Amino acid sequence: MSTPKKKKNEHAYSKDVPMITKATAPAKAILLGEHFVVYGTGAILCAVQKYTSVSVEARSTGVRVSSRYGCDEFASGDDPKNASRHHRPILQIANDLGRGADVTIDSEIPPGVGLGSSSACCVAGAGAMLNQNGQDVEDLALRAEKSVFDGVSGADTAACLRGGLIEFGARGARSFEHAGVSLVVALTGREHSTAETVAAVRQNKERDEDAFGAVCEQVGGLIGDARSALDASDLVSLGAHMSQNQKFLTDIGVSDPTIDRIVAAAQRTSYGAKLTGAGAGGCVIALVDDSNAAKTLGSVEDAGATAFRVETDCDGLRIS
Ligand code: MEV
Fold first, then answer.
1. What's the CA-to-centroid distance between 308 and ligand 1, angstroms?
2. Domain end point (choices 123, 153, 177)
3. Residue 159 shares a structural domain with residue 230
4. Which of 34, 36, 41, 191 to mutate to test the pocket of ligand 1 (most atoms within 8 A of CB)?
5. What is the pLDDT of residue 147?
6. Under DSSP, is residue 304 helix (H, G, I), strand (E, B) or coil?
7. Judging by DSSP bridges, how do beta strands 43-59 and 20-32 pair with one another?
């Protein structure tokens, strides 16, 4: 969807934006396709019920950002590169809109584990600053996310904005009707850097373009089949596809011994399990329902993970 270009200050606080605005965005999990999606293979994501809220109070000038990482004060127009990676996207959004703002970020999403804490913050930040939902928010949020790491695919931002289940491909995001899935999330205890793992995968690809291309093709097929399993609400088949996806992620070097141990434990009790997000630390997701969730929580905890069950968020970005 393309929208007419806006002038830089078109959204400046005025009649259409109240003095205080708040927006809330969900976390996301990638069910299939992370890393390969950067090369156009496609991915299936779902938004999950952990949330980040961003409150914005209008100021005539300057940007203050408070979060679990502390409080930073910037002059309007300061170079976002001088801000910490946690607060840089908010400064980028304020600069893009030519606004002063007092911004408070409240998040229950574990950071640096692949659940989209940064994307949810960008989406909620852009939604609160614009006091609206839609394509302008997505564009602004993605620019903010790229201020930290330019190589992102946009899949995470799309999921946090839209909620529910989405398929993300070369032509962007498409939501599809589904009641949602239930996941056990198992934290490895190690935060990761998306930029570093994406760079490592690029090196892997450049070492052997043909082999990487062949894996991408198989992942593309896997995603098509997984989509059919979702449409048929066939958890056994969907879980098997997720476990197969884990093998491809191991092949490109983004798994590690801790992830392997937790995935193996989760696969014994759930419908299927894999790392989600960038890998190299972060977390594992296991597909469950009421029949096997408790057992899966126990098995991943026995394997050393801290774990919780989470359901699909169907709403995406909410403005309040
Ligand atoms: C990170 O959550 C997912 C990656 O595929 C990067 C991206 O799609 O931007 C590793």
1. 22
2. 177
3. no
4. 34
5. 97
6. coil
7. antiparallel
Distance from the CA of 154 to the center of ligand 1, in angstroms? 8
The CATH number for 236's domain is: 3.30.70.890
> Using 50, 70 and 90 to split pLDDT, how confident is the model at 17?
low
Neighbouring CB atoms inside 10 A of 223's CB total 23
What's the structural domain count of the chain? 2
From 117, 119, 193, 194, the mutation candidate for ligand 1 (largest count of ligand atoms within 8 A of CB) is 194
| In a shared domain, residues 144 and 193 | no
48-83 residue pLDDT tens: 999 999 999 999 999 999 999 999 999 999 999 999
pLDDT reading at 11 higher than 90: no
The model scores a pTM over 0.85: yes
- Residues 202-220 have pLDDT tens digits of 999 999 999 999 999 999 9
DSSP letters along 100-161, please?
A: EEEEEEEE-SPTTSSS-HHHHHHHHHHHHHHT--SHHHHHHHHHHHHTT-TT--SHHHHHHH
Final residue of a structural domain among 158, 177, 196: 177
Tell me how far the alpha carbon of residue 129 lies from the centroid of ligand 1, in angstroms.
25
Residue 16, classed as helix, strand or coil, is coil
Q: Which atom of ligand 1 is nearest to the CA of 201?
A: 10
Q: Which helix (H) or strand (E) holds 272?
A: strand 272-276
How would residue 16 be classed by pLDDT, with cut points 50, 70 and 90?
low
Alpha carbon of 279 to ligand 1 centroid (Å): 9
Average pLDDT over residues 94-121: 97
* pLDDT of res. 15: 47
Q: Which residues, in sequence order, are bridge partners of residue 72?
A: 65
Please list every protein residue whose CB sits less than 6 Å from any atom of ligand 1: 34-35, 37-38, 114, 152-153, 155-156, 194, 198, 277-278
